[in-house]
Design brief:
Layout lengths: L6 H102 L2 H9 L3 H11 L22 H47 L5 H23 L6
Helix pairs in contact: 1-2, 1-4, 1-5, 4-5
């Protein structure tokens, strides 16, 4: 029996080793290509998330500022409405006192006191008072009970108080809506931060399947966050 290896066997071993080395090199090249593609995907996701998170944070800050300004305007308008409402009540009380003074003089038949009471009425109230007298309230059962019930009886402070109340309600509604939009942008920022965390830690896992899983989950959350952002109004 011959000892050692023949030239044919050596050549066969060399050929098989070369084929094995070629397969390993191709496998390593494919692995490197997959790693590069995965790294590029992670980098793209991280870049996109960084931009979207910056925009979401900016929009949340803008809507938060809009909310604060609107609520401050509502508070200012409400304060002015309260002030004018108090002044309007004072004016209405003054008109009532003036009318009571005239009515007391009229009931007593004191013409001089009645003229004095009319002369001390507000100019605008005097106009309404004279229009009320023209309805002959002493004999006309359908006459208004007093000048305050006449269509022309208007207290400017009460009118402005109602206008300020309307402004306050509108500003408060705008402030509440803006605050809600700011909260929605903050919520989306949290989703984007979650994506940033998942994609960021994926590179620390040696198992490629784990990296694929983390990137896939992050991609799904990113799509959800983008859909939410598209449904929100632009910052003011």
């Amino acid at each position: 029996m011959p000892e050692g290896l023949s030239a044919e066997e050596v050549a066969k071993e060399i050929k098989e080793h070369a084929q094995h080395a070629t397969r390993e090199a191709a496998h390593d090249a494919a692995q490197d290509r997959h790693d590069r593609l995965l790294s590029i995907t992670e980098a793209v996701l991280l870049s996109l998330v960084a931009v979207l998170a910056a925009y979401s944070g900016f929009a949340a800050a803008k809507w938060g500022t809009e909310s604060s300004v609107s609520l401050a305007r509502a508070s200012t308008a409400r304060t002015r409405a309260s002030r004018d409402d108090i002044q309007g009540l004072q004016v209405r009380t003054l008109d009532s006192v003036s009318f009571n003074a005239w009515f007391s003089a009229f009931s007593a038949g004191n013409v001089a006191a009645g003229r004095l009471a009319v002369g001390r009425m507000r100019p605008a109230y005097q106009v309404v008072f004279k229009a009320w007298l023209a309805t002959d309230p002493a004999h006309n059962p359908h006459a208004p009970p007093g000048p305050a019930f006449m269509p022309g009886y208007v207290i400017p402070q009460e009118t402005s108080a109602r206008a300020y109340d309307v402004q306050a309600d509108a500003a408060f509604t705008r402030g509440s809506d803006a605050g809600g939009r700011a909260d929605e942008y903050v919520r989306d920022t949290v989703f984007l931060a979650t994506v940033l965390f998942l994609v960021g830690i994926s590179g620390h896992f040696p198992l490629r399947r784990a990296r694929y899983g983390l990137v896939a989950i992050g991609g799904l959350i990113l799509v959800f966050a983008v859909i939410q952002l598209l449904g929100l109004p632009a910052p003011p």
